Structure formats: C-alpha cells, structure tokens
Amino acid sequence: MTFEVLSLFPEAFSGFLESSIVARAIAKQAVQVQISNFRDYTKNKHNCVDDYPYGGFPGMVIQAQPIYDALSSVLQRGNAPVIYFTPQGRKLNQQVLEHYSSYERVILLCGHYKDIDQRVRDLCVSDELSLGDYVLSGGELAAMIFIDGLSRLIPGVLGDIESANSDSFSTPKLGFPCYTRPDNFMGLGVPDVLLSGNHKAIDDWAQQAAYALTKTRRPDLLSD
To answer: Which residues make Cβ contacts (< 8 Å) with residue 215, sequence separation at least 6?
Structure first.
C-alpha cells in the first residue's frame, strides 16, 4: 500500500513515520508513504499559496493552482483515489478503512487555513472524510490517523491479524475488556472464565462482554 500525501507541512509527519506500527510497516515494505509539499508548485515569486476569499468572508483560502498542479504530478504515476480531509466530509469509520485497504495506492490531500478552493474539490477529489464534528487546523492529523488505521489492516503489518479483526468496530460491536498478568492487581482479579482454558466459554464471554459494553456506551451500533 502506498500513501501519497500532499501537505503544506511535511515535517509534521516525521515522528509519526518513525515510530510504532507505521514504522514497522514501512520497514517491512508493506507500506510506503511519500509526501509532497504543494507549496513547491506555486507560481508566484513569494511562494504564497493562500489568498483572501471572494465574498469578503473571514479567513484565508488555499489557491487551486498549486494543489491542482501537485495532484497532476502525483497522478502521472498512476490513477488513485484522492481523499480530502474536511469537516464537511462523511465520517471516517472502520468500514471506510476496510474499503480502502483493498487499494494499492491512495492520495491524501491535507488542507489548511479556512479551506481549499472549491474548484479543486470539484475537479480532483474523489472522496471527502471527516474525523468528527470538530475542526482542526489542518488535515495532517487526519491523514496520520487514516494511515495508522489502514496500515493495521494490511497483511503482515501486525504480528497477528486476528487482533485487528477483533477490535472495536470490526464487527457491529465495541471490543471486549482485556486483561493480562498479574492475575491480581490492587485487589482486582481476572474473570475466572479467562483462566479456565475453555475456548468455547471464553469466546462466549467475549461476545457477551462486547455486547454489554456496546449496549451501555454505543447502543446506536446495535440493530436490536
């Protein structure tokens, strides 16, 4: 899987790409992340990419030309979906990540300031995604979350792919509570069934615990 990221702030990704699961995925060559700064494509002498919006609204808008030219350059290496991160997009969830995990390559466009020129969205963007009902300063954090969440679904990235398959939202339920050693911590023990070695009983417990947690915290996920 190759992630092509277009951003005004490539340096924001440095620590993220050098740590944890994503760094391991890159080391295993299961994931590639290529970052382009669309400021490099501006045609004015001051390398300015933003301007005042038409209509006299507050804030600054990123001009269409540098983004369009950057996308055109990236797309010369082959077609791929172009994803723009915006509060106006559909909500990013596990099903969206699973959908894009089947692609060999995706292009992630990170906006900044008030917004990007709508004409770039009309001409180039194939999907718009939102993290939730709030606004961030730019799309870099959203792109990192997308890369991290999708990388976990790529075979060979996690030591045990079944771990990802049992995470919250991989089914229509939240994940179940997890325990590890020691058996007793500050007077709190571990459910006896998890120590029983009875795999059928353990699976039943996990399903029931996940259902109970979902019903309490996210009943909207349940159909019954």
So the answer is: 222
**HSE (side-chain half, CA atoms, 13 Å) at 121:** 16
Hey, what domains does the chain have and what are their CATH numbers?
A: 2-151 (3.40.1280.10), 169-221 (1.10.1270.20)
Q: Residue 21's pLDDT is what? A: 92
Contacts of 117 (CB under 8 A, 6+ apart): 61, 62, 63, 64, 67
How far is it, in rounded angstroms, from Cα 183 to Cα 186?
10
Q: Is the pTM of this model over 0.85?
A: yes
**Residue 67 pLDDT:** 98
Q: What is the DSSP letter of 34?
A: E
Check pLDDT > 90 for residue 172. Answer: no
pLDDT, residue 224, reads 61
For the chain, give the mean pLDDT. Answer: 94
Contact 158, 25 (CB under 8 A): no
Q: Strand 50-51 relative to strand 61-62: parallel, antiparallel, unpaired?
A: antiparallel
Cβ atoms within 10 Å of 128's Cβ, excluding its own: 16
